[in-house]
Amino acid sequence: MSFTPPPPPVFTRENYHIWIVKMKTYLQAHDLWSVIENDAEPPPLRANPTIAHMRQHAEERAKKHKAMACLQNGVSDVIFTRIMACDSPKQAWEKLKEEFMGTDKTRQQQVMNLRRDFENLRMRESETIKQYSDRIMAIVNSIRLLGVDFTESRVVEKVITTLSEKFESKISSLEDSRDLSAISLSELINSLYALKQRRANRQEENPEAAFQAKASEGSSVSAKGKKPWHNRRAKKCKEFGHVEKVCKGKPKEAAQQQARPAEDLQA
């Protein structure tokens, strides 16, 4: 099958980390990435070469020029002036990398800062798991673009260990049916959403189960030092099951005080 790649991506000074990934793939598609990595001339022809050997040798020597043409056409005119004096595609590639990605020391510092941001991430109560995973992947992709390997299992572990408390029961249910050490991030998110949907459907079919679920949530709040609503006593009527704001009863002492003036008048 013939494959004609599109024109090379053009770097205009912004989003260099994205451009370098696209350009590397473009060069690999044309079988030109090896000359960027090695920057070595092909071995000389042996004595009495065949026409096929001469053709192959010429093609190998031409790869450097093809790779340089790709790089020169893959940058804007302003960026081209930075590499037009380079003698080899490897030299041009490294010059762009040093200027727009920084030195090895600078990249190491950037990776350290991003890793710290990653470790400090925690799920907000107002977030969905999809929103939280998007925040995590934004940092992970920035680390990967700096050339650092970041495994999927590490991302999944981060999500599981930093989810808000409302996901604890779902994670426990998921552990019973799946190997969380081998699950992908997309599978984790889809599984948690599926569990949430199944529980919502069961609660619609069985209102009593929904009431018990709310009661258990109240118990978890109680563990933090607050009483669940069904164990709290209103100050006015001294009855359980509601709080002061919704209490319609009057204090007995207040009722007795209202009755006393009438008795005094009769006396």
Name some characteristics of this structure.
267 residues; 3 domains; 12 helices; mainly alpha; disordered C terminus; single chain
What does this structure look like?
The protein is mostly helical and 267 residues long. It folds into 3 domains: 16-101, no CATH class; 105-207; 232-267, no CATH class. Helix content is 64%, strand content 0%. It is built from 12 helices and no strands. α10 packs across α11 (207-222). The termini are far apart. The relative contact order is 0.06.
Helices, by number, come to: 12
Structural class: mainly alpha
Q: What global shape is seen?
A: elongated
Structural domain tally: 3
User: What's the end-to-end separation, in Å?
Assistant: 113 Å
Explain briefly what this protein structure is:
With 267 residues, the chain is an all-alpha fold.
Please give the structural blueprint.
Elements: H1 16-29, H2 33-38, H3 51-73, H4 77-83, H5 89-101, H6 104-120, H7 129-145, H8 152-162, H9 168-177, H10 185-205, H11 207-222, H12 252-266
Helix pairs in contact: 6-7, 9-10, 10-11
